[in-house]
Design a protein that fits this description.
single chain, alpha/beta, six-stranded parallel sheet, globular
């Protein structure tokens, strides 16, 4: 058995990859993924985690969907590389968080999410992919990408698992707010 890192509020951040308007009609189960992405963003903010977001060539793919854009603490970073890690602005923003753990959500699982996760793992980050908050156009692409990310060393998990792992304890005001987000 491989030892997996434990998430900690003080060392984790959230990355929202390319959840953009023109991709939505092409994606599997987007309504559920969108709800989980929103819950993850709001949960991360509630717990004090830095939140970074990206947009792949927004002139062609449009902006981040409105329901997520309205809860992001800062505007998404524009990118042209598929891997966020290949973009200087993203690399600088991630370094600025001073966080070693990266929780990843977004689209498309087999392209931008996969390449970003691969590069983050290779650069020494502990990466947690919320499988229920990533999607692709085809289920086979999503499934294969999740398998590849796990094989690379990323922890493939779920939104609720991530949020409650970060929360650690029940009975607090944070617990009540996080619980409401995932219902």
């Amino acid at each position: 058995m491989i030892a997996r890192p434990k998430l900690h509020r003080s060392t984790a951040c959230l990355l929202v990859v390319d959840v953009q308007e023109k991709l939505v009609p092409l994606l599997l189960d987007f309504g559920a993924v969108e709800r989980r992405c929103r819950a993850t963003i709001l949960g991360a903010r509630e717990l004090g985690l830095p939140v970074l977001a990206t947009e792949q060539y927004p002139k062609g793919l449009g902006p981040t969907v409105a329901s997520l854009r309205e809860v992001l603490p800062t505007p998404p970073l524009e990118k042209r590389h598929f891997s966020c890690s290949s973009e200087a602005d993203f690399a600088k923003a991630l370094l600025g968080t001073n966080r070693k753990q990266v929780i990843v959500i977004g689209v498309e699982a087999h392209i931008c999410v996969f390449q970003t996760v691969r590069d983050l793992v290779w650069s020494g980050h502990d990466v947690f992919v919320c499988a229920d908050a990533v999607t692709s156009r085809l289920e086979e692409h999503r499934r294969i990408a999740l398998e590849q990310m796990r094989d690379l060393g990323a922890v493939v998990t779920s939104t609720e698992t991530v949020l409650f792992d970060l929360l650690e304890v029940c009975g607090t005001p944070e617990f009540k707010r996080i619980s409401a987000l995932v219902k």
